[in-house]
Specification:
- With about 70 residues, the chain is mainly alpha-helical.
- It has one domain.
- The chain has four helices and no strands.
- The longest helix has 23 residues.
- The chain starts with a helix and ends with a helix.
């Protein structure tokens, strides 16, 4: 589903941001969008948080195993 892909992209963005904070002490979202308290940064932080919550549902979805037939397509 498209919402799953969007959620995963946002979770990856959040992971990169937290990695940069942990490794370099740099908050990329805040640096790019005018500080941690700017409206745009807060929106991005909120979307990443919601995406993380949505991604929990991915753990419980039934996924069919990949077969040779699916790999060749």
């Amino acid at each position: 589903m498209m919402i799953d892909i969007i959620a995963l992209v946002l979770v990856i963005i959040g992971a990169i941001n937290w990695g940069s904070i942990g490794l370099f002490g740099v908050d990329l979202v805040a640096s790019l969008f005018g500080g941690q308290l700017s409206l745009l940064s807060r929106i991005i932080y909120s979307l990443v948080g919601l995406a993380g919550l949505w991604s929990i549902t991915l753990l419980f979805k039934d996924r069919s195993p990949v077969t040779e037939e699916h790999r060749s397509k």
